[in-house]
Amino acid sequence: MRILHVLDHGLPLHSGYSFRTRAILKAQVARGWAVAGVTGPRYNVVDAPVETFDGLDFHRSSMRPAGPPPLGEWREIGVFARAIERAVDAFRPDILHAHSPVMGALAALRVAKKRGLPLLYEIRAFWEDAAVGNGTGREGSAKYRLTRALETWACRRVDAVSVICEGLRGDLIARGIPGQKIMVSPNGVDLSLFGEPLARDEALAAELGMGHEVAGYVGSFYDYEGLDDLIAAMPALVAKRPQAQLLMVGGGPMEPQLRAAAAASPVASRIRFVGRVPHNEVERYYSLIDVLAYPRKHMRLTDLVTPLKPLEAMAQRRLVAASNVGGHRELVEDGVTGTLFAPDNPAALADSLAALFADRAGWDARRARARAFVERERNWSSNISRYQPVYQRLSNAAAMDESWSRLPPVNA
């Protein structure tokens, strides 16, 4: 089986998107499949037409074309489609596997139709909702409606659809996409990357002034992550647990506002920002955090999409506290593998963190249950098997009959 993955971006860029991609490709290679990726023009790296990182080959598009919307996007689809064709000529795939956003699916559709290749489209989040979540779009706007319509149009025309969670699957079914056409390939982690967690880094703790009741967040600072609620919860948490501290690792669009809110807090001395840290240093900071907090706001994006960070925290045997939104409920069983608290509610967040700090005797059992859940249900080495029957059916049908139906059933 030869699979060409059509990607917005990939390695060497570090992002949740590229880490999921790496995990999928590595797991497929381990199964004996031949894989390659082709990245879009927004990646803007053209040093070489093909580059290899971490043993994986990535074909590159040329630079992103200029032009006002929607002309610029239309030209971008054309540039991307030509890059996909070049990759098809070089790699000779059996399957095209496009990953969101929808620009990649639209470009891949052109090539799939021209070359007679089956196409699976994988949606990690709806582009229009992601724009609302990061503050670059508005729900219900003309651009929002157009992007949503394009997503639906693409899903009707590809041969099969993959989504990362039940929330996205349910939304597509509500739009009229046949449920039997949609498979779920949930977020997972590469457990080979997570051995025994590091012991507490006492030198780093001393450098940062971190004690032994530390809540923390490691990741990107977007508005939908609800980090303003985490900072707002700190006075109430410190009132209940005087030794409590907050460690913020990462950066992003909300960083200036969050730093200002922390500086104005009556417990400003208990909140520490360290900015972005090198990827190979992140585990040192994780070692100082007792409870990883994920206070995502309640909105379409967070109700429909499951994040990756809580799974990584569980894989590292870290305690997880997360807001009670749909995406988190697919990952966290309240009181068993983690703690769920009311979203958009700093007081509820403070209460949940205080209760966790007060129940240190139960930490080891909860960590073990969370790790077991990841091993059992969110391990990429086993998750990847979900693709096989879909790939096999699509490639067999395409090989046997050029007039095969483009709406056959796939695993639900």
Automatic annotation (TrEMBL):
Key words, A-Z: Transferase
Look up keyword Transferase and say if it applies. yes
Coiled coil located at which positions?
Answer: none
An example of a Pfam family matching this protein is Glyco_trans_4_4
List, alphabetically, the InterPro entries matched.
Glyco_trans_4-like_N, Glycosyltransferase_grp1, PEP-CTERM/XrtA_GlycosylTrfase
Whether Ubl conjugation counts among this entry's keywords is no
Q: SUPFAM superfamilies attached here?
A: UDP-Glycosyltransferase/glycogen phosphorylase
Glycosyltransferase subfamily 4-like N-terminal domain sequence ranges: 16-188
* Alphabetized GO MF terms: hexosyltransferase activity
**Protein name per its UniProtKB record:** Glycosyltransferase, exosortase A system-associated
From which organism does this entry originate?
Sphingomonas spermidinifaciens
